[in-house]
């Protein structure tokens, strides 16, 4: 893990920001949405992705595919629409 961070800095010139700005109401809303999604999905993304797929649970496989699809759509909207 450490070598990955070092390689990232070396190859991409990444650096750690010295200052963070936060929007507290947005963080609270995001946390609530994550909690609601976890409850609706009967578990978290890593639980479905690691344990559920390992048990060949169809429900977990479908949930993980949905998580990945929504993540891809979110990235597309964030980068190309907003």
Question: How would you characterize this protein structure?
Answer:
With about 80 residues, this protein is mainly α. The protein has one domain (about 1-80). The chain has helices at about 1-10, 25-40, 45-55, 60-80. Helix 3 (about 45-55) runs antiparallel to helix 4. It is extended and about 40 Å long. It starts with a helix and ends with a helix. The mean pLDDT is about 85.
Mean pLDDT: 84
**Secondary-structure element order, as H and E?**
HHHH
Helix content range: over 70%
Question: What low-confidence regions span 5 or more consecutive residues with pLDDT below 50?
Answer: none
Number of helices: 4
Gap from first CA to last CA: 32 Å
Number of beta-strand segments: 0
Supply the helix-strand structural class.
mainly alpha
Number of domains: 1
Evaluate the radius of gyration: 17 Å
